[in-house]
Amino acid sequence: MPVSKERFIQMLKEKGLKVTNQRLLVLEVLAAHRDAHMTAEDIYELVKEDYPEIGLATIYRTVQLLLEMQLVDRINLNDGCVRYEIGETFGEEGKHRHHHLICNTCGKLVSFRNDLLEDLEERIERETGFCVSDHDLKFYGQCRDCKKKESVEEHTEV
What we know:
- With 158 residues, the protein is an alpha+beta fold.
- The protein has 2 domains: 94 residues, Winged helix-like DNA-binding domain superfamily/Winged helix DNA-binding domain (Arc Repressor Mutant, subunit A); 63 residues, Dna Ligase, domain 1.
- It is built from 6 helices and 5 strands; from the N terminus they run ααααββββαβα.
- Strands 4-3-5 form a 3-stranded mixed sheet, with no helix packed on it. A two-stranded antiparallel sheet has the order 1-2.
- A hairpin with a 5-residue loop joins β1 and β2.
- α2 packs across α3.
């Protein structure tokens, strides 16, 4: 569900942040490209379409601030790039977002929106007293398209 500009303004104010065009544009770009897992450079390229005078350093500062305020999440996929996405729950503590499926063949990244670890987290807390506030889970394998392509290639080689 897309988030309105008014909701972004409300979110920024609730976090005690000044409402600026840069902050709104970064949030809007991330919301519009929810499954893109964007780098700061990706965000910059899209923001500068509407705000050409913006600099890359401003994007980095804005993303860092929004990250600290728990309005966006940082994703490290071990590919040398830090990526960002708007949180599913927009900063609500104790809420999990989603997991990531990463294709080892083509590098495609797919979001998996089902948190299956709630029972495990409850067990961890019960047995150890450790209260899990969040987790980050990545699955590595082969996507449907690459698997299909590989299967076709195997059959044509015969």
